[in-house]
Design goal:
By secondary structure, the protein is mostly beta strands. It contains four helices and 13 strands. The strands form three sheets. Strands 1-3-2-6-5-4 form a six-stranded mixed barrel. Strands 10-7-9-12 form a four-stranded mixed β-sheet, with no helix packed on it. It has a three-stranded antiparallel β-sheet with strand order 8-13-11, with no helix packed on it. The chain starts with a strand and ends in a 6-residue tail after the last helix. Mean pLDDT is 89; it is low at 189-193.
């Protein structure tokens, strides 16, 4: 899995006035916490550094460089302005290479479905899966092969085989379904709507 560096600068003042100043100067207020960190570290980072971290379908591990202190982390949460959608705050969780963490990894559809060739519609139900394991064992994505999916069939979490980490998302959750269009439903012997 790819790692991005995010450069940060410690924040001394945590009041709302200083938060506004941080945001107005093109930065994002952040906090990092977790194993190996005695207490939360409040810092800010230039907003431009979040482009490749947040506005992408890919996931990344993060190497925080806070005034020379390197912390391995993952982005836990980001809050956005309800109108402008600007990033208001970011939470990072530190991790250690030898301790499991929980993370979300995107799924990637591969293969060609015979159901789509017959006129079916690909319906992506789940874009990410919750997983647990060592950060270095996580792949960039989890492949979902739809080569055997016919009309009306689904690929569920239980159909995925992974090594090195555990999938926490319920095994009964559908990841992708090949939907049957209305025109084809009528040919199958009745209208079920």
């Amino acid at each position: 899995m790819k790692t991005l560096e995010v450069i940060g600068f410690k924040r001394a003042n945590l009041d709302s006035a200083s938060l506004s100043e941080v945001r107005e100067s093109g930065n994002v207020p952040c906090v990092v916490y977790g194993p190996g960190i005695k207490e939360q570290i409040h810092f800010y980072s230039p907003i431009i550094l979040f482009r490749d971290l947040i506005y992408t379908p890919e996931v990344h591990l993060v190497e925080l460089n806070i005034e020379g202190t390197i912390i391995k982390a993952v982005l836990k949460d980001a809050q956005f302005h309800p109108v402008s959608e600007a990033i208001l705050h970011a939470d990072f969780v530190a991790y250690a290479n030898d301790k499991p963490i929980k993370f979300e990894i995107p799924v990637k559809i591969i293969g060609s479905s015979p159901g789509i060739a017959k006129g079916g519609k690909l319906e992506l139900k789940t874009r990410v899966l919750k997983v647990k394991g060592l950060a270095n064992d996580f792949p960039d994505f989890i492949p979902v092969d739809i080569s055997n999916l016919d009309l009306g069939k689904s690929f569920k979490v239980e159909d995925i085989e992974v090594q090195g980490f555990e999938i926490l998302t319920s095994p009964n959750v559908s990841i992708v379904t090949i939907g049957i269009p209305r025109a084809l439903r009528g040919k199958k012997g009745g209208d079920d709507e």
